[in-house]
Amino acid sequence: MSFCLGLTGSIGMGKSTTARMFKSAGCAIWDADQAVHRLYEKYGAAVAPIAAALPEAITDNTVDRRKLRDLITRDSTVLVQLETIVHPLVQADRKTFRDQAPAEVLVFDIPLLFETGAEIEMDAVACVHVSAERQKERVLARGTMTEVQFQKILEKQMPISEKLTRSEFHIETDTLDHAQKQVEDILTQIRKRISHA
Q1: Domain span at residue 153?
Q2: What does pTM read for this prediction?
């Protein structure tokens, strides 16, 4: 039986970098965003049900993310429809990974872990965090979104203070060395727990 660790945080807090640290330490990683990409790619599991509900979002047997974004912007009910289709498929993908991954510690990189109720599948949750100033600096430095878009994303996500309250482990990503040390400490605690189980 593997130990399932949920890894969450808000945009720009260093979650992907932290997930890579867990991977380097021998953990198997399941990434929610990559799972959605697999579901949307040509003939992916989400293509047929999305084509049935939102045919204009499909191009060449692939979910066209740009068209999907436009549809969601125009009609707020589209997002609810989409989540009804995609969430069960993402959950099934996660279960397949959990059943097949050979590692002792499985890390589930899920930005909306608490928002989607996925924490009930985890043995523990680790939340990455950094100051609000640092977070904003990182996101805007990517050059992929405006400050207004960044604020919109933040409004959709649970406040980081609440995510931290609900998480057993906290990883401050102010520096790479500090984050690395915290990852190692968490794995030491988890491995102790596994050996005493």
Answers
A1: 1-27+106-197
A2: 0.91
